[in-house]
Write a structure and sequence with these properties.
two-stranded antiparallel ribbon; binds zinc ion; mainly beta
Amino acid sequence: MRTDDTIRIMCPNLMCRKILAVPANARGKTVRCRYCRTTIRIPGSPTGKAPMPRG
Ligand SMILES: [Zn+2]
């Protein structure tokens, strides 16, 4: 069982482009780049597994 999965995502800000490591449970959420404060949307689950709609 993997509980410490980390996603690496590049900041979309062309002036920044830092690689950010975010926890896997941040999928489908937004995080803020710690360097430029751009809000980044973390992609959802990989293909083959659709996220469960809540509510
Ligand atoms: Zn950034």
